[in-house]
C-alpha cells in the first residue's frame, strides 16, 4: 500500500527557533551544507499501512536500531534541489517535479517504496514554508534542500525492508566552487558505475564509491574527479557529483549519453533545452578522454563545463591525467557559451527571465 491520499501534515513549530540576528550571522558566508535550518520533515512508511504520520518537526537527531537495514544493506536514496528568494521577497523552487520523478525512479531501482509525487512536493513545500527566512539573498546564495529516504526496518536478513523514513532537511548555501574555472583529474583507477548497476539512481552508495577517487583528485591538486566508463575505460562519463559538457569551435556541444550508468541530471536536461533554444547543436554521444585531450590541445574544443544542482554551471579550465594535462580555452574563466548558458539558467531560477517551460514553482 503506497497511497498518500488524504495525508495531512502535522506542524510542530520549533519552540526555540534561531533568533534573527544569529540566523543572519550564520547565513552571511555558510560553508556548503554546514548550516542547518530550524525544521525537518518526516513521513513514515510501513508495508500494509503505506505512507503515514507526516510531520514538520524541529530539526534534531533521529534514533535508529543498530540493526536498521540502511546501516547494513544501504537502502538509501536522496535528491538535491534549491529554493531561491524572488524579487518580491517570496520563494521559488527550480523544477521540483523533475526531482520528484527522479526520486521515484531511484526508489524503484533500490527496491524501495515509491513516494507519490504530490506527497514529495508537499513535503518540500512544507519545509520551505517553515524555514522561508533561511533563504539567503545574493547572486550565488540559495536554500539547498535535501529530500532523502532510507530503510529503518530492524532486521538482518538480506531483502527489501518493510519500513522506511522519508525526510527533508535544508541548508542555506553560497557558491559550491570558488570563482574561476575548476581543474579536474581523470581517474584511471576507479569507476563510478557499471552497466546494470545503480549509476542512474541517486543513492548514497554511488557517492561513497567516488570518495577515494575524489581524494586522489585532491592529491593531484584538482577540484574534482572525472570517471571513465567501466567497460573500455576510455569514454568520459561524469564527474564525482556533476554532469559534464564540451563546447567546440563550431559552437556545438557534446555531453555523454544517458546509458544507465550516468545520473540523469536535472541541470543537464535544463542546459540541453536552453542550448537548443539558443540555436546550438547538442549531441548526446560517447566522447573519449583521448579525444578530449587532443581537442583541447588543438583548440577544436574551446570550452568545457560541469553542471549540477549544487554547482549550477562551472567552467573547467584544465584536465589532468597520469600522462599529462591540457588547458581548455583560457584555462581560468568561463567561455562565451558557458557564460551565456549559466546566465540563462540562473536568470530562470531567480525569476529574472520568463519561465517559458514552467520550471519555477512558487511556494506560498
Structural features:
364 residues; D-amino Acid Aminotransferase, Chain A, domain 1; D-amino Acid Aminotransferase, Chain A, domain 2; 2 domains; nine-stranded mixed beta sheet; 8 helices; 29% strand
How would you characterize this protein structure?
This protein is of the alpha+beta class and 364 residues long. It has 2 domains: 164 residues, Aminotransferase class 4, branched-chain amino acid transferase, N-terminal domain (D-amino Acid Aminotransferase, Chain A, domain 1), CATH 3.30.470.10; 168 residues, D-amino Acid Aminotransferase, subunit A, domain 2 (D-amino Acid Aminotransferase, Chain A, domain 2), CATH 3.20.10. Strands 1, 2, 3, 4, 5, 6, 7, 8 and 18 form a 9-stranded mixed sheet that branches. A hairpin with a 3-residue loop joins strand 15 and strand 16. It is globular.
In short:
With 364 residues, the protein is of the alpha+beta class. It is 26% helix and 29% strand. It has helices at 20-27, 69-73, 96-109, 117-130, 204-219, 266-277, 289-298, 336-349; strands at 10-11, 39-46, 50-58, 76-78, 81-85, 91-94, 142-151, 163-173, 182-187, 224-228, 236-239, 243-248, 253-255, 282-284, 301-308, 312-321, 324-327, 360-363.
Amino acid at each position: 500500500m503506497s497511497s498518500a491520499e488524504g495525508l495531512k501534515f502535522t506542524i510542530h513549530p520549533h519552540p526555540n527557533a534561531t533568533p534573527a540576528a544569529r540566523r543572519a550571522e550564520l547565513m552571511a558566508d555558510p560553508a556548503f551544507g554546514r548550516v542547518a535550518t530550524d525544521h525537518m520533515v518526516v513521513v513514515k512508511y510501513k508495508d500494509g499501512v503505506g505512507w503515514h504520520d507526516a510531520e514538520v518537526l524541529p530539526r534534531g537527531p533521529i534514533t535508529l536500531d543498530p540493526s536498521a537495514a540502511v546501516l547494513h544493506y544501504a537502502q538509501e536514496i536522496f535528491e538535491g534541489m534549491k529554493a531561491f528568494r524572488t524579487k518580491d521577497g517570496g520563494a521559488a523552487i527550480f523544477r521540483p517535479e523533475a526531482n520528484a520523478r527522479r526520486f521515484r525512479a531511484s526508489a524503484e531501482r533500490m527496491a524501495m517504496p515509491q513516494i507519490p509525487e504530490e506527497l514529495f512536493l508537499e513535503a518540500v513545500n512544507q519545509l520551505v514554508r517553515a524555514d522561508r527566512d533561511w533563504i539567503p539573498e545574493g547572486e550565488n546564495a540559495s536554500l539547498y534542500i535535501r529530500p532523502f529516504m532510507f530503510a529503518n526496518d530492524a532486521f538482518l536478513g538480506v531483502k527489501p525492508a518493510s519500513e522506511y523514513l522519508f525526510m527533508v532537511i535544508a541548508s542555506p548555501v553560497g557558491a559550491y566552487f570558488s570563482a574561476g574555472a575548476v581543474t579536474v583529474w581523470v581517474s584511471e583507477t576507479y569507476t563510478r558505475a557499471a552497466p546494470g548497476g545503480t549509476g542512474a539512481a541517486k543513492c548514497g552508495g554511488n557517492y561513497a564509491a567516488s570518495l577515494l577517487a575524489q581524494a586522489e583528485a585532491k592529491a593531484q591538486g584538482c577540484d574534482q574527479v572525472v570517471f571513465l566508463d567501466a567497460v573500455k575505460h576510455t569514454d568520459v562519463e561524469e564527474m564525482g557529483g556533476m554532469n559534464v559538457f564540451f563546447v567546440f569551435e563550431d559552437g556545438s556541444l557534446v555531453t555523454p549519453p544517458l546509458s544507465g550508468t550516468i545520473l540523469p541530471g536535472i541541470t543537464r536536461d535544463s542546459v540541453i533545452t536552453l542550448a537548443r533554444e539558443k540555436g546550438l547543436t547538442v549531441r548526446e554521444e560517447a566522447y573519449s578522454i583521448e579525444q578530449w585531450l587532443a581537442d583541447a590541445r588543438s583548440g577544436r574544443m574551446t570550452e568545457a563545463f560541469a553542471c549540477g544542482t549544487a554547482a549550477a554551471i562551472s567552467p573547467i579550465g584544465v584536465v589532468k591525467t597520469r600522462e599529462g594535462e591540457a588547458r581548455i580555452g583560457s584555462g581560468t574563466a568561463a567561455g562565451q557559451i558557458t557564460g551565456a548558458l549559466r546566465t540563462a539558467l540562473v536568470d530562470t531560477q531567480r525569476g529574472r527571465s520568463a519561465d517559458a517551460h514552467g520550471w519555477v514553482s512558487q511556494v506560498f
